[in-house]
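Quick log. Single chain, no ligands specified.
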Amino acid sequence: MPKRKKFKRAHIDNEKSPVQRAVFILLIVCVCAGVLWGFWFLSRLGPQDVDYRDLKDNFKVTDEMREILQESIELEAQFEEALALREPTNEDIQLLQRSLEVLENYLKVIPGYDSDADKRRTNLRKRYQNFAATSLQIESVALEEEAISLAQAEQYEAARAKYNEAFRAQKKINEDYPLSDSKNSGRATRLQRQARYLTAEPLYQRSLELETVADKHIESQEWDRAEE
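-> predicted structure:
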């Protein structure tokens, strides 16, 4: 009798084993599916790609907004007219600056993204900075040429002052008009180096003069005067 009970219990355990394996496999599948769903859900919470063309099409431009944009276009057109007649003056360049300011105001008030206006702003900003930096660039180059002439004439203090002025003009271009073609950090460094060199040059020339005088006293055996 005991042997029969053991056989029956073992038989029941064998019948449960496939069911347990099936439940275990199903549990693994559910866990994997849950993990994958969790990754998908977290990815939806992150930054999404934005189609700016849709944003542009989905907002309504009011008449007031169109007037702001038109004002910017007309200001640039006035600059074009002046440019066709003469070299642009400061007043002409201010038309470009005003056109840029109005365009930036337009981009602030619209409820969406206008890619054409944004591209125009980039071009207008660079164009304005190019024209605005021109007079400073001309001034800086002229000052450098004066400094070179003065240095060749051994007027070191005056030359140093001109180099410093040329450096300040180039530095202003680099800081105020970084998008302009006149921006040149290397040139600013070179001008500053030249000014510092001319600070030391007079002292060096004076030391050479004193050394020459001392050598003459030594040749004449004027020892006391040579020590001076």
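The helical segments are 2-45, 52-58, 63-85, 90-109, 115-152, 156-176, 185-219, 223-227.
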